[in-house]
Structure formats: C-alpha cells, structure tokens
Amino acid sequence: MTHTSEPEKIDSKDFFTAKTVALFTKRINNLSPNSKRAWGTMSPDQMLHHLNLACGSSLGYFNLPDESTFSTRTVGKWLLVDLLPNMPKGLKMPVGFAIPSKEHFDFEKERALLLEIINKASNSKSTDSWTPHVAFGHLSKKQWSKLLTKHIDYHLRQFGV
C-alpha cells in the first residue's frame, strides 16, 4: 500500500500519550508486506523486526548485548537523541539491531509485536526499570520519548506510511 499524503507529524515529546499510540497504530496498520521503501535496504518485515529489537530490548523482549561506548553514550546520545529533530538517513546501527539481508520474518507477527511493544512502552509510568539502550546507555523518560518517536517515525516514513 503506497500513500502519497505526508503522515501526520508526531511531536517527539509526546510518545507517552494515547494520541501518539493511535497515530503510530494507524500508520503501522497501513503498512503492508508489499510496501515499497524510499531508501535503505530493509523489506517491511525486516523493518518491523528491526524496530521490535530497537524498541523492545529495553523492555525485556530481547536480550541484546551492550554495544555502548563512551562516544555513543555522550556525543552520539546528545547528537541523535537530544539535538537532531529527525533521524539522519544512513546511520550505522548497533550490531544487535542489524538484520541480515536474506533473513525474513512473519510480517503479521512482527506487526502485532511492534504494536504490543509501543503500547507497553507508552503506558509506562516511568522508564526507571527499563534496561539501558544498547548504544546510548541510560536515557531519561524525555530522551526515550524523543528516541522512540524519531526512530519509529523514521522507519514508517521509509515505507511511505
């Protein structure tokens, strides 16, 4: 399914709201296994799995190794989470989030899991019990809001939803 209208912009300070969950849910449900990407190399099922790894690891869905360095926990976090309004294209991702090009996943299962992760994350009263991000280390609730919103939005826009 290809959409020509620009998706509604989501404020990165509002991840933990019902409105944001509803907007992401609508956009995720508009994605199909045949959605065409505008950039990158992932297929829709791979992108969903990638987001599940990235968004679900700190909530206990996946046990990924710590890949953070002093540089990613300081400059990288400041630049990508706090400073830039959107995720830049072509970023090098943590190894744990990378999907081999030949590996594919059940689209519907990945979509359902992403919706579950987004709902669980957005309903969190606090992020104090979340494990540190694999690249950026400890994040405040405000930083999690920014990162989750920017990352999910980036990949949905990648597929025109």
TrEMBL record:
One matching Pfam family: DUF1569
InterPro entries reported in the protein's UniProt record: DUF1569
Native source species: Flavobacterium psychroterrae
Stated name of the protein: DUF1569 domain-containing protein
